[in-house]
Design brief:
The protein is α/β, with parallel strands linked by helices. Among the domains are: 151 residues, no CATH class; 98 residues, no CATH class; 132 residues, no CATH class. It contains 27 helices and 19 strands. Strands 4, 7, 8, 9 and 10 form a 5-stranded mixed beta sheet that branches. It is flat and about 120 Å long.
Length: 827
């Protein structure tokens, strides 16, 4: 097996904790810099004394820089706030929504305890539908009750509810069927030894074989699987199963053949079995049956426990030179046989009860992953080197004797001030170590990547009297110096890139800088991009887990975040400013009482009312605003104050630069001026940002539900399976730019699942309003039809009829606009 590719960890500084090495290095550097002037490098020289003290202090800095990673992230109590540092446990970050048929089997087997086995297949036609067939669990051995049709219908309803909530994008649920069973019995000769109760062996044989016949799935504890060496990425691959790790022993179809060699292997592995002399399958009458499933019928094989006298003698157990169940001439072992079967039934019921209890018990993950903890030791406190100087220097805590001459006091203060520069640097270094927890976090209010701490008398004896200003002012000036030298945005970006790389992700939207139309100030724009990247990291678990998931149509979708995982990720990558992903993009204009129209429809008289109409913000009104003004009024230099005819002062908009063309938007009253211009600009800028977004329509969900629906328009081949329509507005400043439209389409295409083909629509305000009316209605009809099917409250199918009408209405819109305004992209 090839070795994993790794980057060698950089080792610790070999000289960082070596005082003598630091001293030698410092002395050599001094000799190179001032060897012609300074020749005395012996211990008695004050310069050498200071070099020794600084070298010793550096070993303390090196020591604090070599702690475990956990120590830098932990609080004073030693615990680490995993959420703050975007660190997630394996059971949170590795699972995903079901994608493959195996994922679906394990999910449904875990969620619905009544299922004994389940099979998921693609529906005929390749239209994105999946068919689900399941087998209900058998009652306990000896019980007379069999699963009823009502129980099967209830389980089917719960399967549809669960599968609909967990479905993938462009996937939906087709037929759900409960399969009937065909009974088989074991017959043959098995030799066992006497170290174990033969009844327990008999029960174990039947339990293992019955489980193999009915299901290839079984539960195991997460702790046991991890102890066996299974890595976390495999342990939590696919959907998270709440009742334990599910082992797939064998892939079997619902009507697949029963493998007798496999059954023999299972029996031989059972404790107490010596030899399997013969093994076969027969029907209830003892006639041999071929283990070929159900003879082409859609029936599931089921292994039955012996019931009557004939069935009890089919499987013969040999132990201690005795044979139970042989039924040979002259022998009457009926009592022994009945005792064996009776005791085996008791043991079998116990095994079945334990298996059911295991399925219904929630798995414990408490001890699966050891949450790291730090030492909780403080990193920032600084202890001055001046405490270590000989007392004769007069700079330690004892200072200079009061009886000393003024010159001695002055010399001590001068040396203290000289050493202050070095000590301030070292104190800041320790504060930066303490700030690592903030730098490597998702704190939204973080605004620095370097840290500083002012030195006070407790750290450095009698330093405060030497300050030219008050200590608080000194701390502020020190922080001001730190801000000038702190490239916060650049360092913050690189740190977030590292944290994203832990999850195999990277933020690729640096091209958004080209489309900075809302934040003309560079710092503000950079902060917006940082917030956008930070939102990507903050939501990384949801984005990873739901990367292929669709929205839930059994829950309200409008004005909510009930959207597909791909849509949520694309919204972040495009830097959308509104939180709700599924909402009306025309509603902000309606709330402002504005209606976007082409420039040609605005005459001079109509333009003169725009200024007052925008500031009025009257919901329900329909004041016209030209499209160019909507997109460009907030750009620098576009709005100013000018004079119309006479002495009237007006707000004007520069519609074009060459030749200059101005639109007069309204007159200013007395006392009005730049403040009103700024309000107009900010209002239109905010409207543009709130109107940005997109809608994603899964064509699979638009399919015809009732065969007698006659309103469906004709669609081309391949319209429904694995296709989505992505609908953008084209009236905002960014979304009207053809280059940004290319970026948006590439972002969508790269982040949709690879098998899904998008078709793009860029609609103006009028068409978007029409689309959203149809889309909103369709979402409501889809949810109503889903809930009606779950509750079986409308057997007449009226909900499906209404859904078909809404689907046809929406398809008609998409087809009309597809030829003119759209493009489709494979990546």
């Amino acid at each position: 097996m090839s070795a994993a590719l790794t980057i060698t960890t950089r080792g610790p500084d070999p000289d960082g904790l070596d005082f003598e090495a630091l001293q030698r290095t410092g002395t050599a550097l001094l000799q190179a810099l001032c060897g012609q002037r300074w020749t005395d490098y012996n211990a008695h020289d004050p310069g050498v004394t200071m070099l020794d003290q600084l070298s010793y202090a550096l070993t303390e800095l090196a020591y604090r820089s070599a702690f475990r990673h956990e120590d830098y992230l932990a609080g004073r109590d030693g615990t680490i706030d995993l959420k703050r540092h975007a660190l997630h446990l394996p059971q949170d970050v590795f699972p995903s929504e079901p994608v493959t048929a195996d994922d679906w089997r394990r999910l449904l087997y875990d969620r619905i305890a009544e299922i004994e086995d389940v099979w998921v297949t693609q529906a005929d036609g390749g239209n994105g539908l999946i068919d689900i067939a399941f087998k209900l669990g058998d009652p306990p051995t000896g019980a007379r009750a069999e699963p009823t049709p009502a129980q099967a219908a209830d389980v089917a309803r719960r399967i549809r509810l669960c599968a609909g909530a967990e479905r993938a994008l462009c996937q939906d649920i087709g037929r759900i069927a409960a399969l009937e069973t065909e009974d088989f019995y074991l017959e043959g000769d098995i030799e066992v030894h006497s170290l174990r109760d033969p009844a327990a062996i008999y029960a174990d044989i039947f339990f293992q074989c019955a489980h193999h016949v009915i299901s290839g799935l079984q539960f195991d504890s997460y702790e046991h699987a991890a102890a066996d060496g299974m890595p976390p990425d495999q342990l939590f691959s696919g959907p998270f199963t709440a009742h334990g790790h599910i082992i797939e022993n064998e892939q079997r179809g619902a009507d697949a053949a029963i493998s007798l060699p496999r059954l023999i292997g299972l029996i031989r592995a059972i404790d107490g079995v010596r030899q399997v002399h013969s093994l076969g399958l027969c029907d209830a009458n003892g006639k041999p049956a071929k283990p070929d499933g159900a003879g082409g019928k859609r029936l599931v094989p089921r292994l039955r426990f012996p019931g009557n006298e004939l069935q009890k003698r089919l499987l013969r157990v040999h132990f201690m030179d005795q044979t139970v169940g042989s039924g040979g001439a002259g022998e009457d072992d009926t009592d022994a046989l009945n005792a064996l079967i009776s005791n085996a039934r008791i043991n079998l019921n116990k095994l079945q009860f334990e298996a059911r209890a295991l399925r219904q018990r929630n798995a414990s993950l408490e001890h699966l992953t050891e949450v790291p903890a730090g030492a909780g030791q403080p990193l920032a406190p600084y202890y001055s080197i001046q405490h270590q100087f000989p007392a004769i220097y007069g700079i330690n805590a004892y200072g200079v004797p009061a009886s000393a001459p003024p010159a001695a006091h002055a010399h001590a203060r001068q040396l203290k001030a000289y050493l202050y520069v070095f000590e301030q640097v070292m104190a800041n270094y320790l504060q930066n170590l303490a700030g690592i927890a903030s730098v490597f976090s998702i704190d939204p209010d973080l605004n620095q990547s370097y840290f500083s701490q002012p030195l006070n008398n407790a750290m450095l004896p009698d330093i405060e009297p030497l300050y030219a200003r008050e200590p608080d002012q000194m701390a502020q000036e020190l922080d001001a110096i730190r801000r000038r030298l702190d490239p916060f945005e650049d360092r913050r970006e690189r740190v977030i890139d590292v944290m994203l790389a832990m999850y195999g992700e990277s933020y690729t939207q640096q091209a958004l800088r080209k489309f900075n139309v809302y934040f003309p100030v560079r710092q503000t724009m950079h902060a917006w991009l940082l917030d956008n990247k930070l939102a990507f990291l903050t939501n990384i678990v949801v984005l990873l887990r739901q990367r292929a998931a669709a929205f839930r149509y059994d829950l309200p979708a409008w004005d909510s975040d009930n959207v597909s995982g791909a849509q949520r990720k694309i919204a972040i990558l495009l830097g959308l400013h509104e939180h709700h992903c599924c909402r009306s993009l025309c509603e902000p204009m309606r709330r402002a009482g504005l209606h976007i129209v082409p420039d040609a429809q605005m005459g001079e008289d109509a333009l003169l009312t725009v200024f007052r109409n925008v500031l009025a913000a009257r919901p329900g009104a329909a004041f016209k605003i030209p499209a160019t003004l909507m997109r460009k009024a907030f750009a620098p230099g576009r709005l100013d104050i000018g004079n119309a005819s006479g002495a009237r002062t007006t707000v004007r908009f520069r519609a074009s630069a060459a030749p200059p063309a101005y639109w007069h938007l309204g007159e200013l009253a007395a006392g009005e001026g730049p403040a009103e211009l700024k309000q107009l600009s900010e209002t239109l800028r905010a409207l543009n940002m709130r109107c940005e977004g997109f809608h994603l329509v899964e064509h699979t969900l638009l399919r015809q539900r009732r065969a007698d629906s006659t309103t469906f328009p004709a669609t081309g081949e391949g319209f429904y399976p694995f296709r989505v329509s992505v609908v953008f507005p084209n009236w905002t400043a960014r979304f009207h730019d053809p280059e940004f439209q290319k970026l948006a389409q590439e972002t969508v295409s790269l982040n949709l699942p690879a098998h899904i083909l998008p078709t793009f629509y860029w609609l103006d305000y009028v068409y978007m309003n029409d689309f959203e009316t149809r889309f909103h209605s369709w979402l409501g009809k889809l949810r109503h039809a889903t809930l009606a099917a779950q509750d079986a409250a409308e057997p007449d199918g009226s909900a499906d009829t209404a859904l078909d009408a809404a689907s046809a209405y929406l398809i008609g819109f998409l087809l009309r606009h597809q030829q003119r305004d759209t493009a489709s992209h494979w990546v």
